[in-house]
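User: Hey, quick favor. My workstation is busy. Could you predict this chain's structure for me?
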Amino acid sequence: MRHGRGGATRGLGRTAKGRGPKRSGHASSRPRLPLCAGLPWGRRPHLEAMGSGGSTCPISAEGPAGVEQRLEARGGRLPPALWAQRGLRKLYLSGAGLRDVPAELASLRHLRTLALDGNELLEVPEALCHLPCLAYLYLGRNGLQGLPPAFGRLQSLRCLWLEGNIMGRFPQALLGLPGLRSLQLGDNRLARLPSALPRMAGLQGLWLYGNRFQHFPAVLLRMAQLRVLDLDRNRIARFPDLRSLAGLCLLSYDHNPVRQPPCVADAVRLVGNGAVEYMEEREERLRDQQRLEEEEEEGTERIPQSDGSVLLEDAP
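Assistant: No problem, here it is.
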């Protein structure tokens, strides 16, 4: 049940259908877009909840020595012995049918990775907001409508997955997390972004696919540090000039009613309708430009340099 992670092993383009790496025993079934420069995968694979009724679900935990432990959640309840392991660094509770998490979770003060995706949570457990070392948090595919103000206490958080929930507003608590690098908000109900978004100065990867944006969020033009931006499956008919986004490496705009690829810097990889042709033409233009510059440089080197002696002889 370990959550897979990885870098952009196949460049920055779209690979086979299925977003995110595969976890053992679970095939991915959605398109994926990798993040670059060591950031984690953008989209999580689908995992069915298994904890209804009296069924059991395997869960796993990992301590400071990196030794993985296999446990079981039964009927949506976690084993009490779990909370006695105060040195845990990673805890994977995906698809365990959880409707709540015991307050004892707050005792795992060294926890860095927590996976609660694919459960039945309607609110973020309060105990979760008291984990000072938490860096990677998976909350996708629950029933979350927002985040509590206390969520802003998670100052160590670097990567957050919230895809597949029912959020109609951007969670204000996230604006107090300037160190967050990767934010996954795909398949929610967002239609706008807050004007204070640039306060999240560390944000490099932002996934907003499958939401309700009818216009390109203008505030994103002030997010020059963004490296990956995914706006697939929205209702955006027109994109502004995005060349001001100096850090951008990849932009995905697939399945929007836009008629032509967005205008981006020459180094940006595009994913969407017409992107392949656009990038081929761009590469050809850049090759021609480079060839012309090389020819001009060679021509300059062949011009004989005069030391001015001829002019001196002709002088009266």
